[in-house]
DNA sequence: TAGGCCATCTGGTCCT
DNA sequence: AGGACCAGATGGCCTA
C-alpha cells in the first residue's frame, strides 16, 4: 500500500489501537489475572496475554510496514482498486471479522503465529505465490477450535432433533383432526398435509355454498391430490363402502340413497380399476378422466351430472386426485374391521348430543345419522374431539357421517 | 430389488 | 457467537 487510502489508514489505526476487540478487552488485557477471574478460561487468558504483550508490538510495527509493502502485491495483481482491498464487501459487513483478519494478516510474518491458538488464518505468507483470495478467510482449525466446533455441532444436532420431534408432534396433532385418523396406520407427512388442506377447502366450500355435497363429491374434495392408498384410507374412514356407490346398479346420474346414510349418493357406472395393478389399462372407460398428476398410476373417474367438484374453479388448483377407488384386494380385506380402527371426528351426533339437529340432515329424517346400513358399521366411540361452536360442530358431524 | 418414507446429520443462511 | 430454519445427503426400514 504505497499510498494508504483514508479507509485503509483508519483500519490500520484501529488495529494499532486494538480497538477492534473493544476498549474493555484491551483494559482487561492489561490485567491478566482479571481475565482469569472473569472468564475462568486458561485459554482465553493465555491468548490475550500473549496477544497484547508479545504480538501487539509486532502488529504495530508490521502495520507500518504493511502500508508500504502489501498493497501492490494484492490489489494491483488483481487489478482491483485500493478501496476494495482495504475494505472488501465482507469487511464492511463484518467489521470485527475484517479487523481480525487484518490483525492476523499483519502478524502473519511473525514466526510465532503458529503458536497462536486463537489467531486467524495467517497462511498467506506461506503461499506468497498464490493469489490472495477475497472474502472471509478460513480460520486455522486449532485443536481448541475443532473441539468447540464439535461441541457446537453436537448441540446443533440435538436442537435439530428436538425441532423435528416438535414438528412431528404437530403433525401427529394434525393427523388427529383431519377426517382420517388411525393409530395403526398413520398417514404420511405429506399426505397429512394434503388431506388437511383438502379438508379446509371442503369446509370452506360447504360454508360458501350453504348446502351439503353428496358423499362422492365430498370424498373427491378430500382426496384431491392424495395417493391412492390414502384415498382408500379416507374412504374407509368416511364409512364409504364402495359397494354402495361404486357399482353399477343404477343408471348414470341417478341418485341412490344409501340406507342409513345421511348422504344421497350419485350412483353411476364406476369401474374401479386397480390402477396400480399390472392389469390396469388406462383409458378403458367412457367416464374416465385421466388424473393430471397420476398418469402412471391413477385414473380419475367422476360421476356424470356434474357432481364432481368444480376443479376448474380457482379453489381447486393443483393436483386432482382420483375419487374413491378401492382396490379389489382392499375390498376383500374387511373394510368393516378396518373402519373400526379409525377414529371418526364426530361431534354433536345423536349419541353424544341427543336431539342435536344437523343443518344438513339426512334424507328421510334420520336425525344424527345414527342408523347405518349393513355395509356401514356402526360407531361405538362417537365422541367430541373439540368444543366447537355449534355451526362447526354441525359441520363436523355432517362430514363424518 | 426398487421405491417410499423416515430420522438424522450437516452445512449454509439469516437473525439476534 | 449462537440459535432457528432450511435443504441436501445418507442410511435404515418397510412394502410391493
From TrEMBL:
Which Gene3D superfamilies does the entry link to? Answer: Helix-loop-helix DNA-binding domain
Q: Name one GO molecular function term.
A: E-box binding
Q: Which domain of life is it from?
A: Eukaryota
Q: Biased-composition ranges for Acidic residues?
A: 106-127
One family from Pfam that matches here is HLH
Give residue ranges for domain BHLH: 151-203
Organism per entry: Betta splendens
Basic and acidic residues bias: where? Answer: 73-89
UniProt keywords (A-Z) are: Developmental protein, Differentiation, DNA-binding, Neurogenesis, Nucleus, Transcription, Transcription regulation
Outline the subunit composition.
Answer: Efficient DNA binding requires dimerization with another bHLH protein.
InterPro entries per UniProt? bHLH_dom, bHLH_transcription_factors, HLH_DNA-bd_sf, NeuroD_DUF
GO BP annotations, alphabetical order = axon development; positive regulation of transcription by RNA polymerase II; sensory organ development
Task: Tell me the segments the record calls region Disordered.
Answer: 69-150, 298-336, 350-371
Protein's gene: LOC114845668
Name of the protein this chain belongs to:
Neurogenic differentiation factor 2-like isoform X1
Q: Where exactly are the transmembrane stretches of this chain? A: none
Composition-biased stretches (Basic residues): 132-142
Q: Which GO terms describe its cellular component?
A: nucleus
Amino acid at each position: 500500500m504505497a499510498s494508504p487510502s483514508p479507509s485503509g489508514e483508519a483500519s490500520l489505526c484501529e488495529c494499532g489501537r486494538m480497538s477492534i476487540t473493544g476498549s474493555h478487552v484491551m483494559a482487561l488485557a492489561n490485567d491478566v489475572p482479571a481475565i482469569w477471574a472473569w472468564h475462568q478460561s486458561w485459554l482465553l487468558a493465555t491468548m490475550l496475554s500473549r496477544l497484547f504483550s508479545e504480538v501487539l508490538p509486532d502488529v504495530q510495527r508490521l502495520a507500518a510496514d504493511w502500508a508500504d509493502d502489501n498493497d501492490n502485491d494484492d490489489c494491483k495483481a488483481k487489478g482491483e482498486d485500493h478501496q476494495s482491498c482495504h475494505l472488501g464487501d465482507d469487511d464492511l459487513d463484518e467489521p470485527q471479522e475484517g479487523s481480525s483478519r487484518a490483525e492476523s494478516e499483519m502478524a502473519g510474518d511473525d514466526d510465532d503465529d503458529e503458536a497462536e491458538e486463537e489467531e486467524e488464518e495467517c497462511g498467506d505468507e506461506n503461499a506468497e505465490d498464490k493469489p490472495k483470495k477475497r472474502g472471509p478467510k478460513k480460520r486455522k482449525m486449532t485443536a481448541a477450535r475443532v473441539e468447540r466446533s464439535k461441541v457446537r455441532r453436537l448441540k446443533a444436532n440435538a436442537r435439530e432433533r428436538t425441532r423435528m420431534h416438535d414438528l412431528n408432534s404437530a403433525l401427529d396433532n394434525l393427523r388427529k383432526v383431519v377426517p382420517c385418523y388411525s393409530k395403526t396406520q398413520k398417514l404420511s407427512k405429506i399426505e397429512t398435509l394434503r388431506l388437511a388442506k383438502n379438508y379446509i377447502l371442503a369446509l370452506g366450500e360447504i360454508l360458501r355454498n350453504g348446502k351439503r355435497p353428496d358423499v362422492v363429491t365430498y370424498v373427491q374434495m378430500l382426496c384431491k391430490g392424495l395417493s391412492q392408498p390414502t384415498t382408500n384410507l379416507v374412504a374407509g374412514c368416511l364409512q364409504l363402502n364402495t359397494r354402495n356407490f361404486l357399482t353399477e346398479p343404477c343408471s348414470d346420474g341417478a341418485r341412490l340413497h344409501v340406507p342409513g346414510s345421511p348422504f344421497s349418493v350419485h350412483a353411476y357406472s364406476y369401474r374401479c380399476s386397480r390402477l396400480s395393478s399390472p392389469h390396469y389399462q388406462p383409458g378403458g372407460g367412457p367416464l374416465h378422466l385421466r388424473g393430471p398428476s397420476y398418469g402412471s398410476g391413477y385414473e380419475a373417474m367422476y360421476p356424470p351430472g356434474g357432481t364432481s367438484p368444480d376443479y376448474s374453479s380457482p379453489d381447486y388448483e393443483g393436483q386432482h386426485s382420483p375419487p374413491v377407488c378401492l382396490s379389489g384386494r382392499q375390498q376383500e380385506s374387511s373394510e368393516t374391521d378396518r373402519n373400526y380402527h379409525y377414529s371418526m371426528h364426530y361431534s354433536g351426533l345423536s349419541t353424544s348430543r341427543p336431539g342435536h339437529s344437523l343443518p344438513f340432515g339426512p334424507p328421510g329424517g334420520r336425525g344424527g345419522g345414527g342408523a347405518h346400513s349393513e355395509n356401514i358399521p356402526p360407531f361405538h366411540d362417537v365422541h367430541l374431539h373439540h368444543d366447537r361452536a355449534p355451526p362447526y360442530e354441525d359441520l363436523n358431524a355432517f362430514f363424518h357421517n
